[in-house]
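in:
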């Protein structure tokens, strides 16, 4: 059961990395520093005071940068690989009770995959917001994403199973959003439909 809970913690934190790269690492560092989260061997550095300070500064800069028009879209291109890497790290550092091979396989596939999918969904949403609102809706979106990263990170540490359910809902929403957009712009008629004339 402990391994299952640690997997839920890792997956919840990796999904939060898809919203903001550094906020989940900061919350993880605070929880570890306070003794509320036990990190896997080799990842104890996340709970150190220097790491906590670095994550706090990085989180503040990242959140602030998403409120700067057009910089937010530029950040998305950098944030996607960074979110995947952060998702791998937080999952590997949270998961316990598995062999190193299984720990890293889970971290790369589930942690990196979940973080990447959430990040891609937020990028698509920001792109739509930029086009439809000329960027004026992006600050609201930035606030929602920062809030999502913080709330999901806290849930992952305090109630990991609920965080796991929240991740499934976020992924469902993201897949639905992306596939709906793809269908909307598809030139091919669906089964049973006549081609447009």
């Amino acid at each position: 059961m402990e391994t299952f809970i640690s997997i839920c913690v890792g997956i919840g934190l990796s999904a939060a990395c898809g919203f903001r790269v550094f906020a989940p690492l900061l919350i993880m560092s605070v929880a570890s520093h306070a003794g509320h989260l036990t990190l896997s061997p080799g990842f104890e550095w996340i709970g150190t005071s220097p790491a906590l300070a670095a994550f706090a500064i990085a989180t503040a800069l990242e959140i602030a940068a998403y409120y700067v028009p057009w910089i937010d879209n530029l950040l998305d291109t950098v944030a996607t690989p960074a979110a995947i890497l952060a998702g791998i790290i937080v999952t590997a550092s949270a998961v316990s009770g598995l062999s190193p091979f299984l720990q890293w396989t889970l971290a790369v596939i589930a942690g990196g995959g979940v973080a990447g999918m959430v990040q891609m969904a937020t990028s698509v949403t920001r792109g739509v917001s930029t086009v439809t609102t000329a960027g004026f809706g992006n600050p609201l979106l930035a606030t929602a994403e920062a809030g999502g990263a913080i709330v999901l990170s806290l849930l992952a540490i305090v109630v990991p199973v609920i965080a796991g359910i929240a991740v499934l809902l976020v992924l469902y929403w993201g897949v639905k959003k992306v596939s709906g957009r793809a269908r909307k712009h598809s030139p091919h008629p669906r089964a049973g439909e006549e081609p447009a004339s």
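note: The two ends are 58 Å apart (CA to CA).
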